[in-house]
TrEMBL record:
Organism: Mollisia scopiformis (Conifer needle endophyte fungus)
Domain Zn(2)-C6 fungal-type: 14-42
Keywords: DNA-binding, Metal-binding, Nucleus, Transcription, Transcription regulation, Zinc
Xref: InterPro entries: Fun_TF, Transcr_Regulatory_Proteins, Zn2-C6_fun-type_DNA-bd_sf, Zn2Cys6_DnaBD
Lineage, top ranks: Eukaryota, Fungi, Dikarya, Ascomycota, Pezizomycotina
CDD domains according to UniProt: GAL4
Protein name listed in UniProt: Zn(2)-C6 fungal-type domain-containing protein
Amino acid sequence: MQNSRASHFKSRAGCRTCKRRRIKCDEIKPCCIRCLSGNRICEGYGIVIDAPKRPTSKIIKIQKAKGHANSWSEIQPKVMTTLDVIPFLNHSESAAFDLFRSQTIREMSGLRSSNFWKKIALPACYSVPAILHASMALASAGRWSQASRKGYHPLGSDLMKLDTVHYYNKAIQHLKIHVAKHGDLSSLKISLIACILFIALELSTGRFGQALMHLNQGRKLLHTTSSSKLSAKCDSKVSTKTARLLSSFHSTEDEIVSVFADLDLQATYFGSERPQLTLGSHSSAEIHGPKSQFSLALPKHFSFMQEANQYLVIITNKCLQFVGQELDHDQHTRQNESSNFHRQYLYKTLKDWRKRYKEICSKAVVSDSSDTWKQYSSLMCLHHTWLSIVLPTSYAETEETDFDSYFREFATIVDLANSILSEDASKRLSLEFGLVAPLSWTVKNCRHPQIRRKALHLLTQAGREGLWEPRLMTQLGRELILLEEGIEKLEYLDLHAERSYGDEDLVPLERRISTVSVSLEIGEHPELCITFQRKAWSYGQCIGMETIIRRQPYESLLPEE
């Protein structure tokens, strides 16, 4: 007897839970109604946001702003062209998600991380329940944090906090399924994306300890993966476990690596003495000379600005690894040949990067370049200048007066930071390694009165960058200047006057602070315990260390004026 049933299309796009149960899925995203009505956790539909293949052309000439824009759009995971409605969200959930996609995404998108937020995190919300609820938690946390800083009514602030905790818990509940799937690349991506959202959430509420906990978990995931895209290798020469990450900036994995690379650099000064990730490149150039953990072969030419930035991030990673190594005093002296070789190698790599960077800039018509392009370029020059001071002053014998030879470099850092902030003065949270660390470093080590005050003033205009809180760094910098200069009130002088580089107004050596550390004492009125250390001198000889402790209210927790 012939079958009279009409033929039909068999969908294979159902959620993972329905596929495993072998039942028909209604394919409602990000959670199917069949799973929800049966009180089951919908595992979602996976992430389908792979990027296209690498372009065939080796060099992209930057001659117009339009051509430059093309180089920025080489990462092209799926983009949400419309603000689709997720049907099963209630009113408050819809409002939280709408806040995430309309405001949080825009605020979190920086010069380098916009592709992650717009083309990876946002599309994943429509197919992965864990990412959806994590995004709603992040948006709700932003509202809660803003309400607390502005001194809103406690009842409204408490309701926002409850919403944040509710979405946070639901995200973790959905995420447990993916965490349990060891070796599954799609689940690994979901876990890492959620980890980044959790880090941003904790940072937006000032919970730095919890943010570091999530960061450490994310770094462990990067270490343990066996994916070809997120490859991990142990370096036998380094005592702590590190990962060599190949970041080509052409796929979902590479964007995730880029975000973690920035967070890892920030954590160098918060609980880590050096970066925990060892970044590599896709360059096939041959490394000349002895190979080490600091070796890096630059390409003969940079194809586009993003590639130049990629290599500068890798160089920054290697420089901070070198400077932050737990070496004996004798191993970091000027007489140590091995240490000197690595320092000179990294310094030469910095000079080679600068040469290739100038070549690509010469192909761009400055008058046609966009403001974003100019900010991108200024930020790279700022980081390069900062590293050009960090490396030569990393000897064990370095005295505080040795920084006086770099006033012009410090002035360059301040001028570049000023140009960036004049284009973007919004005080928002970003996960990128940007201005706060170099400006804070300038305030501490530059004793030129006008330059360090200008750097301190710019810190008050900067937004939060991951673990770097500019209000905290401003408070520390202000106390440092008052202590070193022996004054009771800080005056900013004329920040726009012509600079002179004489030494008549410099802080004497015996008053200069060597190290600054801070701890937060939690209580009814949170206090900062700031510990300063400087060398004690007698007849031109160092006879020990002097410790000075200051206690102050934690200004970052006070309501904004």
